Amino acid sequence: MKKKMSESYSVKSAIVFPQHTNNYNTMFGGMLLSQIDDIAAITARRHSGAQTVTASIDSMDFLRPIELGDIVILEGVVTYTGRSSMEIMVKVSRENHSEEGKILTGFCFMTFVAVDENGKPLEVPEIECDSETLKFLYDTAEIRVNRRKERLEHTKELAEYIEKQLF
């Protein structure tokens, strides 16, 4: 069974309050990453129809700050599927009263895995690209997946060394 990419699209908005900011009155990176993980989980669950867990997060570059009082907008979509895994792209934007429209502040790709009640991986539907704007993400997904696999192998090698050698 295939599902259209647009069927997984999820959006979430929130106002940035003082408790979400650092001493520069910009949003804490960790707070933003938590919200990114949340929208990605919703997106993955919407696509898979199952519980999901975060398997990885690719790098997150903060392109522009999100300031106190801004509205942060998080948009997620499934851009690739494996047997039980899903690549989710999360786009982060801001709106405020002094600028017109949404301003891109960052984006990242995350991997989620669908699991059953025992935490065992479940098969997920394949995706079908149904939008010209999503086509680039769809067409370049395999490159990102291969990079992720290489990085994971390197991480496993490092973990063996770090576990025994450091500190």
Describe the structure.
This protein is an alpha+beta fold and 167 residues long. The chain has one domain (2-165): Hotdog Thioesterase (Thiol Ester Dehydrase, Chain A). It has 2 helices and 8 strands. The strands form 2 sheets. Strands 2, 3, 4, 5, 6 and 7 form a 6-stranded antiparallel sheet that branches. The protein has a two-stranded parallel sheet with strand order 1-8. A hairpin with a 7-residue loop joins strand 6 and strand 7 (103-115). The model has no long low-confidence stretch (mean pLDDT 94).
The named CATH superfamily: Hotdog Thioesterase
Q: List SSEs in N-to-C order.
A: EEHEEEEEEH
- From the N-terminal CA to the C-terminal CA, the straight-line distance is 49 Å
How much of the sequence lies in strands comes to: 25-35%
CATH architecture: Roll
Instruction: Classify the oligomer.
Output: single chain
Question: Could you say which overall geometry the principal axes of the C-alpha atoms support?
Answer: globular
Domain HotDog ACOT-type: 6-118
Pfam families: 4HBT (PF03061)
Protein name: Acyl-CoA hydrolase
GO molecular function: long-chain fatty acyl-CoA hydrolase activity
Topology:
Layout: E1 2-4, E2 10-15, H1 29-48, E3 51-57, E4 61-62, E5 71-81, E6 85-95, E7 103-115, E8 126-128, H2 132-165
Parallel strand pairs: 1-8
Antiparallel strand pairs: 2-5, 3-7, 4-7, 5-6, 6-7
